[in-house]
Amino acid sequence: MSTRRALLALAASVVVGATAAASASAATVTLSGPTDLHACWIENVDGASGCGLALSGVSHYQEFRGLYRFDVAGNVPATATVTSATLRLPKLGLPGGTACGLNLWGIGQGADWLSTTPTWASPDGGTTSWNGGISTWLPSTVFLESGCDSTTALFDLTDLVQDWHSGALANYGFELFKPSAYAYGTTTASGAIQLVVNYTP
Known about the structure:
Layout: H1 3-25, E1 27-32, E2 37-43, E3 49-51, E4 53-59, E5 62-70, E6 81-90, E7 103-105, E8 142-144, E9 147-148, E10 152-156, H2 158-166, E11 174-177, E12 184-187, E13 194-200
Antiparallel strand pairs: 1-13, 2-3, 2-5, 4-5, 4-12, 5-11, 6-10, 6-13, 7-8, 7-11, 9-10
């Protein structure tokens, strides 16, 4: 092999190696199922609530709000850098509403609703007041879906997940609110709702 060919081969191997190293340095984790997701719902008229699924919407003057919290810290290394995060909701949920057109309310929930079943009046079922969660969303922000195909609605939650991961905001999850005349629901079953996080170690 000539000197020129040897140098070209060496340069090519360096480029391939660098590309492989760059690809290997990126990672993706999909958070789904009851191990990674805590979900509850609250309702304003009679104080009904529950966990294991989340309902959002309005039905017969009853307003439902879904609460979701993904375990980002348990799945993304503390030293990593989050590059993107996408919420994937099944387009059609229970009891038959669609995720397309949903608004995601809430960055930085200021009350811990994770230790017990929350109610409309109180996140902990006690004396802490939150009026359906609205008074403790810091700040209150709306996200619209970034895409919706035949099966899945997508929401870009990169900024929110980056703040959770960095500690800029406590991870008390977010609220899903649907201002329409029918309810949309999702369960915590594996695959039913997903948070896909891309990061570099």
